[in-house]
């Protein structure tokens, strides 16, 4: 079993254990998606979904698990992407919002990044240029932080809300709009 397969197995086990479900904790997770839904998403984004992200949706569930409120169902993530691309925030191409962290903040996957870099979008700064930062260099690392409780969004993490979190700005923002 390779590292990605091990990670998917760990995510699936945690998702089954503490599923957010579509309505409230304890409800069953949505069914995994088929290849046709992934192809539709890729048509909308104009690029292939990163393999790990696609596997989360096709092997684990269509959202409802993961950090904070869990991954968004893919259709909801795509709707959010399309709405933000049409907004005045100059949303970058192929950057898919995957988790609503509350207060209009989203964790997003850069689908053009070789590592599926996870970005944080926080419009509360009031400036599009300042709204983007790097949350994790890779989707795999972001998921591992959730699994082991070391990511800033985990209650048990020493990096939680009681500390001033300083994320690195996303330097590619300007070139991707």
How are the secondary structure elements laid out?
Elements: H1 3-17, H2 35-45, H3 51-60, H4 74-85, E1 95-102, E2 105-110, E3 118-121, E4 132-136, H5 139-148, E5 168-169, H6 173-176
Antiparallel strand pairs: 1-2, 2-3, 3-4, 4-5
Helix pairs in contact: 1-3, 1-5, 2-4
Radius of gyration: 15 Å
In DSSP terms (H or I, runs of 4 or more residues), the helix count works out at: 6
- Global outline: globular
Spatial order of the strands forming the largest sheet: 1-2-3-4-5
**In which range does the helix fraction lie?**
25-40%
Structural class computed from helices and strand pairing: alpha+beta
H-E order: HHHHEEEEHEH
User: Ends: how far apart?
Assistant: 39 Å
* Largest sheet descriptor: 5 strands, antiparallel
- Write down the overall mean pLDDT: 85
Uncertain segments: 157-164
How many beta-strand elements? 5
Q: What amount of the residues lies in strands?
A: 5-15%
Features:
alpha+beta; 177 residues; 14% strand; 6 helices
Describe this structure in words.
With 177 residues, the chain is α+β, with helices and mostly antiparallel strands. The protein is 35% helix and 14% strand. The protein has six helices and five strands, in the order ααααββββαβα. It has helices at 3-17, 35-45, 51-60, 74-85, 139-148, 173-176, and strands at residues 95-102, 105-110, 118-121, 132-136, 168-169. It has a five-stranded antiparallel β-sheet. The relative contact order is 0.13.
């Amino acid at each position: 079993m390779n590292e990605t397969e091990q990670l998917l197995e760990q995510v699936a086990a945690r998702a089954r254990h503490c599923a957010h479900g579509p309505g409230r904790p304890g409800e069953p997770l949505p069914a995994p998606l088929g290849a046709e839904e992934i192809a539709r998403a890729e048509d909308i984004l104009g690029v292939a979904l990163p393999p790990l992200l696609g596997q989360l949706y096709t092997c684990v569930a269509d959202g409802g698990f993961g950090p904070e409120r869990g991954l968004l169902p893919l259709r909801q993530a795509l709707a959010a992407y399309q709405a933000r691309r049409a907004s005045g925030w100059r949303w970058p191409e192929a950057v898919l919002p995957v988790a609503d962290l509350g207060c209009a903040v989203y964790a997003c996957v850069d689908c053009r990044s070789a590592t599926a870099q996870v970005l944080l979008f926080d419009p509360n700064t009031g400036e599009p240029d300042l709204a983007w930062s790097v949350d994790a260099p890779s989707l795999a690392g972001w998921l591992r932080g959730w699994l082991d409780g070391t990511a800033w969004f985990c209650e048990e993490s020493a990096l939680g809300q009681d500390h001033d979190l300083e994320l690195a700005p996303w330097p590619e923002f300007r070139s991707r709009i």
